[in-house]
Amino acid sequence: MDDAGTPLIRVRDLCRDYSVSRRREGVRGGVVDLLRPRRETLRAVDRVSFDVASGEMVGYIGANGAGKSTTIKMLTGILTPTSGTVDVGGLVPWRDRGHYTRHIGAVFGQRTQLWWDLAVVESFRLLQKIYEVPDADYRRQLGRLDELLGLGEFLHQPVRKLSLGQRMRCELAAALLHAPRLLFLDEPTIGLDVVAKESVRTFLRDIRESQGTTVLLTTHDLGDIQQLCRRVIIIDHGRVLYDGDLEGLRARVDDRVALHVELREPVPSAALAAATAGLPVQWREAAGLLHVADFSRRDVRGAEVIKRVVNAQAVLDLRLAEQSIEEIVRGIYRRGDAGELP
After folding, report:
1. Which domain holds residue 304?
2. Would you say 218 and 185 are in contact if contact means Cβ atoms under 8 Å apart?
3. How far is it, in rounded angstroms, from Cα 304 to Cα 267?
């Protein structure tokens, strides 16, 4: 689909507007709405631009209503944008949809693309026919997916009898049977337990490394982003707030850490505050022996805080925890100002 050295996905100034009705209050307002409906334009995606290289796995995240699902629908060709351009390997998703869908795969959370009452393998064979995958290619790809996902134990079971984790593995396999260059994932681990989530994450890492599949991942599970993506795009109110690597996000937004201290004997937090007097550190007592110090690495070195604590108190254990990506994203939403980010 793409030429060497050029991005697989090129998005420029992408916009999508919706016309929504604003209802008036009361019975009289309802009658007026029938005669003269009041409509407003809502911009769900506002001049979004980014590139994605072939083989890259990018996290595309945002709160509910931020515009990420609308963006994905335009990138898959389901929606036509109000303005802007999308080029995926030389194809325009909504214009070249028939040819384009042969090169992409998609998994949308718990919305199944499998036939509920058919055995899994029968659904796979129907998808083989739909995508016109040659028999030899189908057998080779199914064998590869079986090896990575362990599908053999339930290939001949009806989809309705599968657990959620088993069905998600089948959904991923179904999206990749035709060996697409590009995979869209919308909440692929939603509702899964810890073991099933790790199985899906391991598979996604393997498929990217072994087949060079490009992945655009939207999720509310920041664990998915931390484990799978080096790059993240954050969208809010239809606009891109940040586009860069995770470490850069941590460093530029808030380099705060939490020092967890377990003492041998209980002491008040005031005693620890006295030990770090003069340093920009805030103490909070979690329990009699457990205390937490919050500070920014921009303002003070962690080694200095630890040295003072160890010299002043009998310490049993220390743990320095960085701020989670989820907390960082919350901080960005609280600011609500893209201008504060580079």
Report:
1. 255-322
2. yes
3. 21
32 and 54 both lie in a single domain: yes
Q: Write the pLDDT tens digit of every residue in 14-31.
A: 999 988 777 767 767 666
Q: What is the DSSP string of 14-27?
A: EEEEEEEE-PPSHH
SS3 261: strand
Whether residue 170 contacts residue 133, with contact meaning beta carbons closer than 8 Å, is answered with no
The string of DSSP letters for 26-38 reads HHHHHHHHHHS--
Instruction: Please give the C-alpha separations between residue 251 and each of 77, 135, 332, in angstroms, as whole numbers.
Output: 36, 50, 13
What phi-psi label fits residue 84: left (phi over 0), alpha (psi between -120 and 50 degrees) or beta? left
**For residue 102, with 0-12 CB atoms within 10 Å meaning exposed, 13-18 middle and 19 or more buried, which class applies?**
middle
> Are 279 and 223 part of one and the same domain?
no
Distances (CA, A) of 50 to 60, 93, 212, 216: 11, 16, 20, 12
Which residues fall within 8 angstroms of residue 60, CB to CB, at 6 or more apart?
68, 71, 72, 216, 217, 218, 232, 233, 235
Those residues with Cβ within 8 angstroms of residue 173's Cβ, 6 or more apart along the chain or in another chain:
124, 142, 145, 146, 149, 151
How sure is the predictor about 89, in pLDDT bands with cuts at 50, 70 and 90? Answer: very high
E strand or H helix that includes residue 184: strand 182-186
> Mind giving me the DSSP string for 101-158?
GGGEEEEETTB--S-TTSBHHHHHHHHHHHHT--HHHHHHHHHHHHHHH--GGGTTSB
**Per-residue pLDDT at 339 exceeds 50:** no
Q: Which residues contact 264 (CB under 8 A, 6 or more apart)?
A: 289, 314, 315, 316
| Distance from C-alpha of 321 to C-alpha of 294, rounded to nearest angstrom | 10
Average pLDDT of the residues in 206-219: 90
Q: What is the pLDDT of residue 334?
A: 65
Amino acid at 231: R
- Say whether both 136 and 261 belong to one domain: no
What is the tens place of the pLDDT at every residue in 227-240?
899 899 999 889 99
33 inside domain? yes
Confidence at 254, pLDDT banded by 50, 70, 90: low
